Automatic annotation (TrEMBL):
GO molecular function, one term: ATP binding
Gene Ontology cellular component list: plasma membrane
Organism domain of life: Bacteria
Annotated ABC transporter domain residues: 346-580
Keywords: ATP-binding, Cell membrane, Membrane, Nucleotide-binding, Transmembrane, Transmembrane helix, Transport
PANTHER family (UniProt xref): ATP-BINDING CASSETTE SUB-FAMILY B MEMBER 10, MITOCHONDRIAL (PTHR43394:SF1), ATP-DEPENDENT PERMEASE MDL1, MITOCHONDRIAL (PTHR43394)
Name this protein carries in UniProt: ABC transporter
Transmembrane segments: 21-43, 63-82, 145-165, 171-190, 259-281
Membrane topology: Multi-pass membrane protein
Cellular compartments annotated: Cell membrane
Domain ABC transmembrane type-1: from-to ranges: 24-312
UniProt KW Ribonucleoprotein keyword: no
């Protein structure tokens, strides 16, 4: 655990390194503030000593001397305050820039992670690592960095100053430090696991909320509010329980450390009084010494107060670096460039694949698709249809065999080059919070307005857009709920059209639209697919009658292939699928 903490601290230091001069300036100003703070008790004790001396000698108070000391104390106090403020200002600047860089690295890392990572992790938990966990680190560094430096150096300066006054009394005071450290270490060892669980529970809560807010209308439709509330309550209770235990246990530090400090105060007051009577110590020095005790106990108290923040940050740091240490998509060693002209021939040669080693899905799959052909992929749920597309797009890599585009193994090409060949329309239409114009332009960022409108016309969505408020400038809200599912699907088709792909993939593209919109989409897709290699994952078998090749999949294997008519004549699995669907539609 200690090695892990030091390793995380070292990695955080690498984010501060680019701003080291500002950081060193903050440290220098902190040192100035610490030295001045250590001088103040000694200086403030001098007027007391002088006044006590004047009274004891029966002479008048030496006001000019006392006044000069007061002015010096005020100047030192002002410089101390200014140094402390500037140190805090500069360290805040360093921390915020470092956290900006950390978030940037996480964002870049997310783009390099394989799709499999997001298939096994809740989006809300990933989001929590980028936001809540980084904020926890930021708050800890900003609040505690200067405070910890102040504490340790302040304690050292105070001890040195106390030694110059009275060594015996200083040894008594030094009891505070080891006892406080023992108390702190004991409590931290107990509470740390609850802080880790607290951060994990917070990630689970974010994941749950994100997932359920996304499907809020479905929850309402099926009356799942109470069940969802129970699940939320369970996670929320776990978060609250871990948070309470973490705070309650770490909260014991301050009272226990203060108990030690107050005990030392009492002892020093008694010993100091005897030393004054014995003439070993002046009243002003005792006053200064008691202030130095405060300069030792107060920083120790600060550290214990920051314990909860530091432990939360420690748990958050572990979660942040976990995502940064995740294995990335394997980079190619060859990186064969794309040919200048892509015909669109696709072949699967002896392809085998499984999501988990003990559950093989696709075994020795062979497909030959010629340029310009339309290939429909059909089969029951779980047959491997979408997996086939994931392999084609290199969202996952094959275990054995090869997938080739124009005779080039896609594994030998850069993933971005492979994906640049494809245009894709998914069953779940994804739009982002921007205008309709920008959502279509997402397929080709340098597209002109004319090209956007032309793509919308080809996708048969231009008329819909012009009837909406603000037309192409209408803003899609964050949930995409201010337009219909069919309109969303047509907009995503327009986005695929504007990218002018060499190979087109339609994953259940018409499954969520009505018959009229299906007809519009089908006409648009007929135009788009003309001259392009197209893969269509079909839900409605009536939409693929004109496909050049139909692949019938079941349990990861192609069990039948041919045209619509030839497959019906064969009276096999495809005919059963087609007739069952036809009878369902007739009903």
């Amino acid at each position: 655990m200690k090695n892990q903490f030091l390793s995380s601290l070292k990695r955080l230091g690498s984010y501060i390194s680019p701003y080291k001069w500002t950081f060193f300036l903050a440290i220098f100003l902190t040192l100035v503030a610490i030295v001045l703070n250590a001088m103040l008790p000694f200086l403030s004790g001098l007027p007391t000593t002088e006044i006590a001396k004047n009274i004891a000698e029966g002479t008048g108070v030496n006001f000019p001397y006392v006044f000069r000391l007061v002015v010096i104390i005020l100047i030192v106090g002002l410089v101390y305050s200014a140094s402390q403020y500037l140190a805090s200002f500069f360290i805040t600047n360093v921390v915020q820039h470092a956290m900006r860089d950390l978030r940037q690295d996480i964002s870049q890392k997310i783009n390099r992670l394989p799709v499999s990572y997001f298939d096994t992790h809740q989006y809300g938990d990933v989001l929590s690592r980028v936001t809540n966990d980084v904020d926890a680190i930021s708050n800890a560094m900003q609040q505690s960095f200067i405070s910890i430096i102040n504490a340790f150096l302040g304690i050292a300066m105070a001890i040195i100053a106390m030694l110059t006054i009275n060594a015996t009394m200083t040894l008594i005071v030094l009891v505070i430090v080891p006892l406080s450290l023992v108390i702190s270490r004991t409590i931290v060892s107990i509470s740390q696991k609850y802080f880790r669980e607290q951060q994990k529970s917070l990630g689970d809560l974010n994941g749950f909320v994100q997932e359920n807010l996304t499907g809020f209308s479905i929850l309402k439709l099926f009356g799942r509010e109470q069940e969802t509330l129970k699940e939320f309550t369970a996670i929320n209770h776990r978060l609250g329980n871990n948070g309470f235990k973490a705070a309650a246990i770490s909260g014991l530090m301050m009272p226990l450390v203060n108990l030690v400090a107050y005990s030392v105060y009492i002892v020093i007051a008694i010993v100091g009084a005897f030393n004054i009577i014995a003439g070993v110590l002046t009243v002003g020095n005792l006053q200064a010494f008691i202030q130095y005790i405060w300069q030792v106990s107060q920083p120790v108290g600060q550290i214990t107060q920051l314990s909860a923040v530091l432990q939360s940050a420690s748990a958050a740091t572990k979660r942040v670096f976990e995502i940064l240490d995740e294995p990335e998509e394997v980079r190619n060693t060859e990186n064969i460039p794309l040919p200048e002209t892509i015909a669109g021939d696709v072949s699967f040669k002896n392809v085998s694949f499984s999501y988990t080693p003990d559950k093989p899905l696709i075994k020795d799959l062979n497909i030959e698709v010629k340029s310009g052909q339309t290939v429909a992929i059909v089969g029951p749920t779980g047959a491997g249809k979408t997996t086939l597309i994931n392999l084609l797009m290199r969202f996952y890599d094959v275990d054995r065999g090869s997938i080739q585009i124009d005779g080039i193994d896609t594994k030998a090409m850069d993933r971005s080059d492979v994906r640049s060949v494809f245009g894709m329309v998914l069953q779940d239409a994804w739009l982002y919070n921007a205008s309709i114009l920008e959502n279509i332009r997402f397929g080709k960022l340098d597209a002109t307005n004319y090209e956007v409108v032309d793509a919308a016309k080809t996708a048969n969505v231009d008329h819909f857009i012009r009837t909406m408020p603000d037309g192409y400038d209408m803003q899609i809200n964050e949930e995409g709920s201010n337009i219909s599912l069919g309109q969303k699907q047509l907009i995503t088709i327009a986005r695929a059209i504007i990218s002018d792909p060499k190979i087109l993939i339609l994953d259940e593209a018409t499954s969520s639209v009505d018959t009229r919109l299906e007809s519009l989409i089908q006409k648009a897709m007929d135009k788009v697919m003309e001259g392009r290699t197209s893969f269509v994952i079909a839900h409605r078998l009536s939409t693929i009658r004109n496909a050049d090749l139909i692949l019938v999949m079941n349990q990861g294997q192609i069990i039948e292939q041919g045209t619509h008519d030839s497959l019906l004549e064969r009276k096999g699995f495809y005919e059963q699928l087609y007739n069952s669907q036809f009878s369902e539609e007739a009903e």
